[in-house]
Every structure is written in structure tokens, then in C-alpha cells.
Amino acid sequence: MAVLTVENLRKDYGRIQALKGVSFSVPEGAVFGILGPNGSGKTTLLGLITDILKATAGSYKLFNEEPNESHRRQMGTFLETPNFYHYLSAVRNLRISAAIKQRGGDDIDRVIEVVNLTQRKDSRFSTYSLGMKQRLAIASCLLGNPNVLILDEPTNGLDPVGIAETRELIKKLHQQGKTIIMASHLLDEVEKVCTHVAILKKGELIAAGHVNDILANEDIVEISAADMNKLQQVAKTLSGYTNLKAEENILKLFYPLGTADLEQINRSFFEHGVVLNGLQVKKKSLESKFFELTN
Amino acid sequence: MTELLKIEWLKIKNYSAFIVLSLFFALGVVGANYAVYVFKTNVIDKSDPTPGLISSIKFYDFAHTWQTTSYVSGFLLLLPGLLLILLITNEFNFRTHRQNILDGWSRSEFFNVKLALVVIAALASTLLVFLTGLVFGFASGTSFSFENIEAVGYFFLKSLTYNMVALLFGVLIRKTGFAIGLYFVYMFFENFISALLEGLSFYLKVQNGFDIGNMGDYLPMNASDALLTFPKNVVTDMAKNSSVAPHTYSWLIFGLAILYLAIFYVWSRSRIIKTDL
């Protein structure tokens, strides 16, 4: 089942085209990263599928049905900023969210504990730091243990510990079978937690699919040896790779996708009298892929 | 709707401005009427410059008390209006209008519950005025009567109008300061235009014999104001029956007041339902 199907979705702000006809779908159980630089239309896209914004053209479906508010009650959504009543405490704010969601009223203490806000749960929201507000927003998404979460830049404003915790939380939710749709401009974040990715650039979808399909279109074999000169000489006699790049203490061999045979490579070097002390296949890093796609 | 209102109550009950403004309004209604009552019985009635004329008018006797309390309390309707602007613009400031939708309200649920607040505030204000009228009526030592009770109905209409204008301004302007500022400026402006139109109406009648009523009464907020008149007495009757005063077409004013309410409703609703939040 597709949790979300987007068809030719378009959004204009006057003459500015924020989203130019985007189509993709999010399978159940995926951690779906929407990746793009600032202003590429990520938040606009999430706003459209949650009825915060009205589309200029196109359509979308939630859980394979025409979208309505009951679908939104089955999702935990955090869009752009933590939105809470400043004069109410965390607990009172979550009571309102839980009541609107029609679920999770008895879940408030648990979600506050998950994001480590138990000690401050009765403080007014206005007294919270940016990171605490962000964590409360994540807690609110977890209310009622929904099967789908929509998170817009969830680690924004968090300290390194908070970022790592959020990442772990997302991985854990994924293991529990939840579907997570997450917008981010942090490549690293998407690379670490996502199973699927859609890349947006100036409102256009330039790639969407499984992380491995999008990110790896060649195998990069990184090798190293005690004698780097000898290593490079031998490497030049080998065949099968398309490109060779020498970096400090590392040699990179670029093979067409799926053709790098590590055993064979290791054997070849050994037969030429070079003992490798490092050998591994790397997918093309998302960062380089991202720049390649968006530039 | 009960569920929606319960959630709205969670937002409101710990909001200090709600408690303060409601208290001000309640004390204001009782206090203002008490002041008028005391001033009338202790000052005017004891030193009537027009022997017998003014002191013969019993503001808080039954049959008059409904009109007097409604009229006097009408001047305080800015306070519930102010509170409603705060409650509505808070949602935009905190961006909780978005979160309510994200969490699973439909846009019309979000609008309907705000509309319900508008109506409830008007009903509560009206109930307060009814009780105040009742107490002062009995305090005047007269026996109960429903005569002139329509004044309380007109108070409700006026209250509903002020609250709907507050809803509209809140929804259109979104920023608390601007919305409150413009609410007051608009009211001042409309009263100013209304006064000009009133002058024009007198002029047209006297000069050209042309009389379509006091045109000042046909503006959005003045229409519901106009229905709630100063308690009828010898003096007002004299003014009304004078040959220079335009005729009062109450049915027209009433129709316009209802029409304006419908416009406020459609306008504010479509803003929430159809545009980006």
C-alpha cells in the first residue's frame, strides 16, 4: 500500500512557481527523505499534503484514498516550526493535540519521557529553549503511536546529542514498521536514516526512489597499502574500472554499478606483490550525488 | 460540536486575558448600570431642572429596565470583541491554526468552533444583561413584566455583530496589534461616516422633502446600534416626532443588520476554508 501518492502537484505563489508538477509515491514502511536545498519546495510539498496549503493543480492521496481529516489524525505531523500555545505547559498543549487527534490522551507522559522533557513538563511553552520546543513538537507527533510520521527538518535547532537521539528514534520507529516522511536539507541525515529519497530542486523533482538506486550508480572501491606508489603502479595495469583517483593514503577505483569484484581485485594486487591493508566498496556519497543532481 | 468546544475550552480556561476581560465586562455591565441607577435616583430625580419631566421617566422600572440595561451595556461590547480578536489572532501568532489542522481538524471544524465562540459570547453577554435588567427592575420596586423585552433581543443582535466583526478582523488581519487597532479605527470611522450621513439625511428631508430614513443607520455596525435606542420617554418621543427628523424604517435596519451578519459569516468562513493557512 502507498501511504502517500502525489500526482502532478503544483503550487504557485503569484508568479513564483514553488512546486512545478511533482509526482511520486511513498510505500508503507519506508523512511522517505525529501531532500533539497533551501527554497526547493520541501515544506510547500508537506503543506499541500496536510491541507495547510491549497494546490494550484494536481492531486494527492493518503492511504490510497481521497484525503480528509481522519487521515491526518492517523499521522503525527511536525511542519516547519513547533506550534504550541505559549501560555500553556507542555502537558496542557499535548492534551489539546491528543484531543484533536482523538487518541493518545493517556500517552502524554510516555511521549514526554521519550524526548526527555519530563522534568519540564509543567513549565510554560514560552519558557522553553528552541531545542526543547523542537523536542516537544516531536513528542506531539508520537502521541497515540501513529503509523505514519511527517517530520519537517526534525533535527533543526537540536544540539548534537539531540540530533543523535532523534536519528536513533527515527531508526527505532522504522524498525517498528512505521512510515516516516521527512524533509531535510541535511544530506548526511537522509543518508543515515532513509530508505527512500526524493530530491527536489527549485520546485522540480529530479530523482525519487530507493536510496540505493538513486545514490549508487557506480561502485567506488577504496584501497590502500603500505606502499602507495607501488599500489598506484599496479592499479594502472588492472582493467575493468572506468576511472582512478589517488587521494592521500587512499586510491579510489570507479567501477560500473555491480561490477566490482573485491576478491578478484585483492588477488590481482597480491599476485603483483602488493598486500592491501584496506579494501572496501562505497556507494557514491550522497553529498557528491546531491551536488551533481542539483547543480 | 461539544467535543470541539471542549478542546476550545482547554485553550481558553488558562488564558489570563480571558479571565481578566470577562471579569471587566461583567463588572462593567453591573457597575455601569448601577452608576446610571444611582445617578438617576439620587441626583437627577432630586434636582430636576425640568420639574416633573425627566424625573417622571423611570429608567429601571419594569418595562423600561430591559431597554435601559441593554442600551447602557451596549457601550461595553468592545470588551468581548477584544477578547475574541485575541483568541483568534493567538492561533495565527502561535501558528496553532496550522497545528490544529495537522492534528486532524478539518478547516471547517476550525472555523465552526470559532463561530461557536462568537455566538456563545453573545449569548453569555445577553444573559448577563437580562439578569442585570431583572435585578434592577426588582430593585426599583416594580413588578415583573416582559414588556419591551425585544430590547434584550436587539442587544443580542448588536453583540453578535460586534463579535462577528471581531472574528472577521481577526481572520483577515491575523496580527493581534493590527487587528485590535483596526477594529477601533474602523468603529470610529464608521461612526464618523454615520454622523455625516445622518446630517445629510436631515438636510435632504428639510431641503428637498426627500426621506429614506437616517442613512447613518444603514452602515454595518450602526445598523445593529440603531435598533437599540435610548429608552423611550417623553423627550425622545418629541425628537422623533419632530418634522425635521427622518422617518425610522426599523424593518429595513433590521434586514440590513442580518444581511451584514451574513456577509461577515461568508467572508470570514471562505477565508479559512479556501486560502493557504
Fold and architecture overview:
Chain A is an alpha/beta fold. Chain A is built from eleven helices and 13 strands. Chain A has helices at residues 42-49, 69-73, 90-101, 108-114, 130-142, 160-175, 187-193, 211-215, 228-237, 262-271, 286-294; strands at residues 2-13, 16-27, 31-35, 57-62, 75-78, 148-152, 179-184, 196-201, 204-210, 218-225, 243-247, 250-256, 276-283. In chain A, the strands form three sheets. A six-stranded mixed sheet of chain A has the order 5-6-7-3-8-9, sandwiched between helices. The longest helix of chain A has 16 residues, at 160-175. Chain A is elongated and about 70 Å long. The model of chain A has no long low-confidence stretch (mean pLDDT 89). Chain B has 277 residues and is mostly helical. Chain B has one domain. In chain B, 74% of the residues lie in helices and 0% in strands. Chain B is built from eleven helices and no strands. In chain B, helix 7 runs parallel beside helix 11 (250-274). The longest helix of chain B has 33 residues, at 107-139. Chain B is globular and about 70 Å long. Chain B starts with a helix and ends with a helix. Chain A binds chain B through residues 47, 50-54, 68-70, 72-73, 77-81, 83-88, 92, 95-97, 99-102, 140, and chain B through 3, 6-7, 10-11, 14-16, 90, 94-96, 98-107, 109, 274-277.
